[in-house]
Amino acid sequence: MAVPGRRRGRRAGSIAGVNISAGLESETGEVSDTALHGAKLVIAVDGPSGAGKSSASRGAATALGLRYLDTGATYRALTWWLLEHGVDTEDPEAVVAHAREPRIEVGTDPAAPWTRVDGTDVTEAIRTREVTGAVSAVARVPQVRVHLIALQRDIIASSAGIVAEGRDIGTVVAPEAPVKVFLTADGAARAVRRAAQVNWSPDTTRADQDRRDSMDAANSGKAANAIEIDSTALSLDEVVARIVGLAQRVRNG
Ligand code: DC
Question: Model-level pTM?
């Protein structure tokens, strides 16, 4: 299980027009979490694929000196392992039978997140078309969710403060998070962004997006107290600035 690394050194700077300065170092060079954040800050970022969650979450985590957790990577990592081992990802019983076999680790540095399965770096391998096409079926298996949500909660608990992105962070994984964002964008805009990332045609991407949206819907949700941000007409910096602004309001009480 991943134990996120500790921050080192002083962080100060400005991102998206928001000034950030933090850091009281101990003699060992470790930044004091209490000095940095007061109470632990967890920011939940949920929303459909292609809304820009990853970039916005990483940007906000960097700006705020927090760790970053891509919960989707845990579902992708298990799916990668199942495919590698010839397990039928459409067969829930087979998936359940093997779900606890791989050791899944996720690194939480927003500058360089990584995913490992049994010690093998699969950061790139979990983004292939094959994994993307199979992961929704795996992620909807209830026992898989119980197992991976426990892993995600452990990672969140062992961090001093974190931006966690996914589909059910504000509703299920960390319902106590003091900052919850639901990031959306219209379907066409999401497909265009995703097409650029995955190098598919816009039509293929849109069809795949619609299929995945409907498969993921049962486990996706907007928390009642989440702030919705529609990123359709916003730049990445603008989305990051909004999330940072919400976090600073919480920090400042
Ligand atoms: O965000 P993504 O495309 O990497 O997510 C991969 C899959 O995992 C997708 O089917 C949605 C699912 N998922 C989920 O069910 N719950 C989460 N917290 C994160 C992702």
Answer: 0.85
